[in-house]
Specification:
With 189 residues, the chain is α/β, with parallel strands linked by helices. It is 35% helix and 17% strand. It has a 6-stranded mixed sheet with strand order 2-1-3-6-5-4, with helices on both faces. The protein is globular.
Length: 189
Amino acid sequence: MCNLCNDPNHKPDTPKADKPFIPLNIAVLTVSDTRTLDEDSSGKFLADSLTDAGHTLIDRKLTTDDIYQIRAVISAWIADARVHAIITTGGTGFYHRDNMPEAVGVLFDKEVQGFGEMFRAISKDEIGMSTLQSRAVAGMANNTVIFCLPGSTGACRTGWQGIIKDQLDNRTRPCNFVPHLMRENPSHG
């Protein structure tokens, strides 16, 4: 029996279970004061990657790094029963206009504390101690998971390939986020 998932048939060293893939509806938000959607290589990478993995890009937007505009977009997606996951890029640094953690933190029902820790651990091999300046965060709100990545395409690649892709795959063992996104609640039925 697996101690993490309590499945008597699961062997903890098995990375993917033998069951059908469940595609999710995922929204992508780019936060930038300088880019347009056409110039947004990070958002495009995330959109292409999630569709290549079998998920559906349900919406993609770009907004300036304004706390209230960010909250408005994300709040609308959280309230939309069709949206299972949100991935953002940009606004996680230390510059004056980097407001993503402050914008989304108040929306979380629960913070996924390990996400930022793991993102920085993985990033250290790529960018050294500069990873300390990443304020990548994640959380759950209304049974929607929200991952907030830095604005560079490299950071989005690291976050997607190193963490998010497997955590949004229902076959990843011993656990992933999909069961939490499929539970019934007032707006996700």
